[in-house]
Design goal:
Strands 1, 2, 11, 12, 13, 14, 15, 16, 17 and 18 form a ten-stranded mixed beta sheet that branches. Strands 3-10-9-8-7-6-5-4 form an eight-stranded parallel beta sheet. By secondary structure, the protein is an alpha/beta fold.
Length: 409
């Protein structure tokens, strides 16, 4: 008899074999649930979960989501959250419910997942250059009129126009500006205006606006330094907007900003929406950049954690947990931090292990204990897991698929 969806769910959580769920589903001829929540037959305590496990403190995340929505409403600016952070249509839909004008996706495959889930307004923020990806984007545009694409080269515009003409549709595009990242985007001033003129001559493209995302400024330490650099950068981009508008083009969208500059860019006249991402989870890297009145960026609270188990103690001053490089994305030498436990410092101990040093005489962690750690960098860490465990009142009631996990194309 073919196992049912509920059989697999009970196997995955009841026997603490969650990591095996996608493989076992495929072996039985099923695809793992892609888009909707999985409700457990009975809630599980956190200590009943196998580890490492990725947890969302639902109430903390909801406070972050509503706080950002209220801030945007008070400032008179729209939100266009970036799904590259959470990769989960369930969360994206909640962001739209709270008033977001749409979502951003860094990759074509992420956008495909969101459109499959019924999210209509998706902006793909990273340019593409190959015929196969252009065809995929045009196919998406045929499914939802809310799809928008960022371009930054004249040839790219021409290629998209030809593909759109062949499909009998008009593709909505934004010109990506190089804000100083030197990663993507066209140079400010005349080069950007020339690209706008190119788009204007192509009948199957519609110029919706400009993207001015300054990703290199999101983690500038010190609020005042971050403010000065962001205001200067966006002001120069707005000068390019004015240049393009004087040439007769209507720029309806001027999108950019992020979690690190949310309270700065929202006050800049001319910015239409913010591409915030990490605010709903927060992580060690963001907390370290500081706030307007604090050395800790605490406008939003950590809501994403990895649950780990202490598995060995070869020497007295340290203990080993079962969460290493495969459980946390290691970047910029930042390290996870323990939630609610003092006197512990985490170090990477290899692919499967973390080494925890006791920094005081206290020993708050014993072999067999489980503990939660704040993520060092949320986006790439999320991409290591198949599911979120949704925690409310100390219990796990649902699993949410990370549906766009591994969608890097």
């Amino acid at each position: 008899m073919t196992p049912s969806r509920r059989d697999f769910l009970n196997l995955a959580v009841g026997s603490t074999a969650l990591a095996a769920l996608p493989r076992r589903l495929r072996a039985a001829g099923h695809n793992p649930p892609a888009l909707g929540p999985l409700t457990l037959d009975s809630p599980k305590g956190i200590d009943e979960l196998d580890t490492p496990a990725l947890l969302i403190d639902y109430d903390a995340m909801e406070r972050n989501l509503t706080a950002m929505a209220r801030h945007a409403a008070a400032q008179g600016i729209e939100l266009r959250p970036h799904v590259k952070t959470h990769k989960c249509p369930i969360i994206a839909k909640r962001q739209v419910e709270l008033g977001a004008v749409g979502v951003c996706a860094a990759k074509v495959s992420e956008a495909e997942v969101m459109v499959d889930a019924g999210i209509e307004n998706v902006l793909i923020t990273s340019p593409v250059a190959t015929p196969e990806k252009i065809r995929r984007i045009v196919s998406l545009a045929a499914r939802t009129p809310g799809l928008q694409m960022v371009i930054d080269r004249a040839q790219n515009a021409q290629d998209f126009a030809e593909a759109a003409a062949a499909a009998g549709l008009t593709l909505r595009v934004l010109i990506g500006l190089d804000t100083g990242t030197r990663r993507t985007g066209i140079a400010l001033g005349e080069p950007a205006l020339d690209l706008a003129r190119t788009v204007g001559r192509l009948h199957n493209l519609q110029l919706d606006g400009l993207q001015a995302y300054a990703g290199h400024l999101m983690h500038v330490e010190g609020h005042e330094s971050r403010r000065q650099r962001s205001v200067d950068t966006i002001s120069r981009c707005l000068e390019t907007r004015a240049l393009i508008e004087r040439a007769g083009f209507e720029i309806g969208v001027f999108t950019g900003g992020g979690t690190g500059t949310f309270d700065i860019d929202s006050g800049i006249e001319g910015m239409t929406d913010l591409q915030v991402g990490s605010y709903l989870f927060m992580d060690v890297q963001y907390r370290a950049i500081g706030d307007a009145d604090s050395d800790v960026f605490d406008a939003f609270e950590p809501s994403l954690f990895v649950l780990a188990t202490a598995i060995s103690q070869p020497v007295a001053d340290r203990i080993t947990v079962d969460a290493g490089y495969k459980a946390f994305a290691n970047e910029r030498n930042s390290k996870p931090e323990f939630r609610k436990l003092e006197g512990l410092k985490y170090y990477y101990g290899g692919d499967e292990h973390g080494i925890v040093i006791f920094t005081t005489d206290a020993r708050p962690l014993q072999v067999g204990d489980k503990a939660q750690l704040i993520i060092s960098h949320c986006d790439p860490t999320v991409n290591l897991y198949d599911y979120y465990h949704i925690v409310q009142d100390g219990r796990v009631k649902q699993l949410w698929p990370i549906s766009a996990r591994g969608r890097s194309q």
